[in-house]
Every structure is written in C-alpha cells, then in structure tokens.
Design goal:
Helices cover 50% and strands 0% of the residues. The chain has 244 residues and is mostly helical. The N terminus is likely disordered. GO terms for molecular function: histidine phosphotransfer kinase activity; protein histidine kinase binding.
C-alpha cells in the first residue's frame, strides 16, 4: 500500500526552490520553503503575465551558411600559369546519439507521476528552467541525506531508528512534490519501518522481532530507493538534455 502523492499533507511536502549547492547535515537543519507555496506563487504570476504578454520581435533572418563540399578554385591564367581545378572533399560527422525521452515516455513511466510533474513544467512558461532547477536542488540535497541514511544503518539504536524514519519522511514529501513516485514509495517504507510499522505487509517486517530486523527492512527499502532514484535521475536527465 502506497500513499497517493496528491493527498500528501502540504506541510510535509517540502523542497527548497532556490538553494542550489546546499548539502544538508540533517533533515531538521534544512531551511526549506514549501514547494506548494512556490508552485502557488508561480501559478499566480503565470495568470498575471498572460494579460501582459507581448509578441516577441521576429529575429532577422540569418544568411545561410555555405555547406562544406566540393569547390572549384579558378586561377586566372597568365603567361606562366594554367587554369587549375582543386577539389576539396569533407566528411560529415554524425551528431552524438542520445536517448530520446519525450512527454509520452514520462507519461508511460512508472517512475513519474505525470499529473504532478506536468504542473511543474507549466511553471517554465513564466520562469524558464524552473522545473529543472527544482529537480537539481532535490538531487543535491538527496545525495547528502542518502549518505546520512547509509551511516545510520551501520549503528543500530532506537535513536537512530527514529532518525531514519525522519529522513525517510522528509525525502518522501520532497519526492512526492516533484512527482517522483517510486522514490516516494520507497522512502515511505523507510519512514514506517523506522517506526516499526509494517504498513505494507512486507514479509521481513511481518516477522520482525527486534531492532536488527527493522534495520534489515530499512536496508531493503534504502537499496530500492537508490535504484529508483538513479533511474529517475537518468530519465529526467535525458528528458531535459542535462547532466543530473
């Protein structure tokens, strides 16, 4: 059983919109602005700008570049020189191939909640690169939190178990706000197992008897989170044509 990203409490759905380069030390230390506020403000700006949009001035046509190929160079004859024809041959270099990811690709992917992600893309009409900047910020912060989870998994204690739950909760909300539904689902497992809650009838959690068993459940969820995270990052990197 997984939660519906659209039904999440907005207070837990947070990522910073303009703090590129920040690596968090703990989830509580990260000062964030609710992504719902960012999106709401962008929506209001979008509606206002629709009434004041001006047509862009057409760019003057540029003279076509001469295509490389065979050219004849004529030498004007004189008493000692005979007209000569020189042939220059060039070879076209094919462009670097890249996986083509389209809107349809994202719609059909189980990694992305297209309904939510589409709303972010609409914000690009008012602020170019808005959606990509949110994804980049999430990636920067998530990489730091993943390292913290990895470290916590090496030291079994009730306190660290609660901390793991907190970090899973934080990443779940941020992923849900961006439509990264598989990352969200796995982070929800971390959150619940950290509270010793077998919410999804996972067999290992059903058989859990001590803290070590719950750590094993979180380890399973953590590894699957990383897999979904990498797959989502690669997919969106190809979509935006950017290195993420």
């Amino acid at each position: 059983m997984t939660s519906n990203p659209q039904s999440l409490n907005p207070s837990s759905t947070q990522i910073p919109a303009t703090t590129a380069g920040l690596t968090a030390t703990t989830a509580q230390d990260i000062k964030v602005q609710p992504v719902t506020e960012v999106i709401e403000q962008q929506s209001q700006d979008h509606q206002q700008q629709q009434h004041h949009q001006q047509q862009q001035q057409p760019q003057p046509p540029q003279a076509p570049l001469e295509q490389p190929g065979t050219q004849d160079l004529n030498v004007e004859p004189d008493s000692n020189v005979t007209a000569t024809s020189i042939t220059i041959t060039t070879t076209a270099v094919p462009p670097t191939s890249r996986v083509e990811v389209t809107q349809e690709t994202l719609e059909n992917s189980d990694l992305i909640n297209w309904t939510i992600f589409q709303e972010l893309l609409m914000m690009d009409e008012d602020e170019e690169g808005f959606a990509l900047s949110l994804i980049q910020t999430f990636i920067e912060q998530a990489s730091g939190i993943f390292q913290q989870i990895k470290d916590l998994l090496t030291q079994e204690s009730e306190e660290n178990l609660n901390e793991l739950s907190s970090k899973g909760h934080y990443l779940k909300g941020s992923a849900a706000a961006l439509g990264l539904q598989q990352v969200q689902n796995q982070c929800e497992r971390i959150q619940n197992y950290g509270k010793k809650n077998n919410f999804d009838e996972f067999k290992l959690a059903s058989d859990a008897k001590d803290i070590g068993d719950w750590y094993a459940c979180i380890q399973d969820a953590y590894e699957k989170t990383l897999t979904s995270y990498d797959e989502s990052k690669n997919l969106l990197g190809d979509y935006f044509g950017a290195a993420l």
